[in-house]
Amino acid sequence: MRRPSPSDEPSASPDIERRNYFRIEDHIGLEICRSASAEGSKQSGAAGHLHALRGELRRLDQDIRMNLATLSERDRLLGSLFKTLNSKLDTLARIITFEQNMMQAVRWQDVILSEGGLAFMQDSAAFSPGEEITLRMVLPPELYQVEARAKVLDISASGRVHTEFIDLPNTDRQLIARHVMRWQIRKRQHDQQQGLDT
User: What is the pLDDT confidence band of residue 49, given thresholds at 50, 70 and 90?
Assistant: First the structure.
């Protein structure tokens, strides 16, 4: 019997594609704002400057990684030294970020995260399906900071709000994908270590 080819199958709906993303249960920093709130409009200017700075930082980080790879091919010892110095600067930046006041306003909570969206428990604010919100996320331990527009899909009886990202920039999607991948690696290593200990 001939197996159906991809052309024989109906195209996947957006809901099915969203479910195809690998989801993880994580504990992240999360700030939720209504997209059209007055507070959001007041902070839009500062947020724009901050977004530009983050973009510049990501570009510089990519340049450093490319140059480090080239340097390592020519001189492994020197390349290893610069990688260590780069990691030290990253760690220092994380420490400074944690100590800054802006981190105190971010609430840390358990969520379900994927490249397609985020699910979180509803607190004091009430949301409704179809509503657009802004999610500001801090993803440990790398402390990636991602700001995304999202649409509320549904709210479960337990109060969990399921959202889908809207027009998420590719750079932010890659940050989430990298975070999910590293979470998987850490979990696999943790499970293997537990297997050795038992």
Answer: low
